[in-house]
Amino acid sequence: MILDSKGGKWYKGNLHTHTTNSDGRLTPQEAAEAYKAHGYDFLSLTDHWVKSEPSEYGGMLLIPGIEYDVIHNDSCFHVVGHFMNGSPKLDKSNSAQEIIDAVKSFGGTVTLAHPAWSLQKPHEMAALENVDFTEIYNSVSGYPYSPRPYSGTLIDVAAAMGFRATLTAVDDTHYYEDDAFRGFVYVKADSLTEEAIRAALLKGDVLATEGPFAEWTVEDGCFKVHIPGGCEHVQFFSSRYYNPDTTVKGGTVYDAVYKIKSNDRFVRAEIVGFDKKTAYTQYHFIDGGSR
Ligand SMILES: [Zn+2]
Ligand SMILES: [Zn+2]
Question: What distance in angstroms lies between residue 219's CA and the mean position of ligand 2's atoms?
Answer without folding.
Answer: 37
